[in-house]
Amino acid sequence: MNTKPLVLIVGKLSKTLKKAIEDNYQTLYLPEEPTEQQAFLKTNSQSITTVATSAAHGMTAELMAALPNLKLVASLGVGYDSLDVQYAKTHGICVTNTPDVLNDCVADLAMGLMIDVARNISYADRFIRDGLWQDRSAKLGRKVSHKTCGIVGLGRIGKAIAKRAEAFDMNIAYYGRHQQTDVNYDFYDDLNKLAITSDFLVLALPATGDTTHIINEQILNDLGEKGFLINIARGAVVDENALVKALKEGKIAGAGLDVFEHEPNTPKELWEMDNVVLTNHIGSATYETREAMAELVFANIQSFLAGKGAITPVV
Ligand code: NAP
């Protein structure tokens, strides 16, 4: 009889992570097709205590409820808006994420988007490839160094962005629910005031009920026609219709966006805009960081199943 603990994989995970789980535990995969899934749950639901999944896939309360002995949901990614953490909390299920190991890469991307959109890097690349250099002169951009970088949500990733922005001699200001005690940056308890003062408003806060559409028409107006919006957080924190409208009407200078309200769909209007840089949710998407994230998912499972508790629990 196989005495190894059982781990259920929900959604897509990397080959390395699947192999680490398969090598150490009995492994089951949740079928995607609804009828197959129902049959699978009928047979296996009682024996499953541990799930490995990702923030990209998430896990609903309905699925957690279908697994009556569930004790751990180990998720790849730092955001947990796609996981029903409230349900888990009230049903004694531990949820883990992968904080810190992705700070550098997400912060690097935020700086990349900031510089790209302000200095027209992607635009210039298209300009050359479209054979336009012969006929036209360069489009002027906006200076990044010495400008004000306003960070919304100065947590782990926000602080990594601030550190990089400091190297560009930027003034750093931030908004959050609390003033941070370990930094000297200018704290704003009023998001409108931060938007008014910022040249670059960089979003690095979680998507929660409280933060849905925290960036609305008024905030974009406050950011103003010389201001850029950079979003590496979650699409839900921005009212995307208001953003498209603000860009169309020249209310803000431009935007660098890694995340969107209805991924993988992105507003077609943005595709036509040269003052917008779009990336497909690639904040943590490097070999090194994805490997570190996978290792942390596995370490959480290992520690929890060995009775030592989770390493990075979110509840
Ligand atoms: P974190 O360390 O928990 O920091 C989050 C920050 O947001 C905290 O400073 C918190 O400060 C602030 N915050 C929380 N609720 C807020 C609210 N209602 N209003 C204003 N500020 C609020 O998280 P992190 O590791 O830096 O990650 C931040 C987010 O980045 C994640 O939740 C995830 O959605 C996103 N992310 C995106 C990618 C990507 O691929 N693009 C990758 C990783 C993470 P206060 O408590 O003081 O408010």
UniProtKB/TrEMBL annotation:
InterPro entries: D-isomer_2-hydroxyacid_DH, D-isomer_2_OHA_DH_cat_dom, D-isomer_DH_NAD-bd, NAD(P)-bd_dom_sf. Pfam families: 2-Hacid_dh, 2-Hacid_dh_C. GO terms for molecular function: glyoxylate reductase (NADPH) activity; hydroxypyruvate reductase [NAD(P)H] activity; NAD binding. Gene3D superfamilies: NAD(P)-binding Rossmann-like Domain (3.40.50.720). It comes from the Bacteria. The keyword Protein transport does not apply. CDD domains: HPPR (cd12156). Residues 7-314 form the D-isomer specific 2-hydroxyacid dehydrogenase catalytic domain. SUPFAM superfamilies: Formate/glycerate dehydrogenase catalytic domain-like, NAD(P)-binding Rossmann-fold domains. Keywords: NAD, NADP, Oxidoreductase. One of its GO terms (cellular component) is cytosol. Residues 111-283 form the D-isomer specific 2-hydroxyacid dehydrogenase NAD-binding domain. Belongs to the D-isomer specific 2-hydroxyacid dehydrogenase family. This is 2-hydroxyacid dehydrogenase.
